[in-house]
Fold this protein.
Amino acid sequence: MSFPEDLEYPEPRYHGDKGEVNATFRLASTPPDVSSPGGATHFIATHESTGGEFGLFKAELGARSAGAKPHFHKAMSESFYILSGELELYDGDKWVTGREGDFLYVPVGGLHGFRNVTDEPMSMLMLFSPGGPREEYFERVAEVAQRGREELKEFRIRHDSYFVEDFE
């Protein structure tokens, strides 16, 4: 693979000469941050822990889990990496089947969605960049959905999630 000669890195944000001790480590055995009958979400790297650079979440969906209907984000990209099982992914044009090792990148504004239509559980990593404060979204979306369509729409918009069904 050849690389353009004018390839440049971003401007430095650290200006020291010796480096810092500032890494964080998270054990694989850490319990999920959010659990529900349909699955679990692990907050691997949060908005706060990355200084807003990105958010990384592990999602586990049970068999026949609804996931997320088609939507888009105005402020961040979202990426999906399938760890195990199968997941139907909406790429803005059609539903495709993602399997272990498959990856979907959705740029800012890109329509996307996901659902587990199989009889088996699955797991995936979801990467948001830059990292918005998605933790409240994952913690409260099921609760807010019980309160009604208008409150759910406002909650989603506050969390940069614009669902197609909200604007039809």
Observations:
- The chain is about 10% helix and 35% strand.
- The helical segments are 135-145, 149-158.
- The chain has one domain: 34-167.
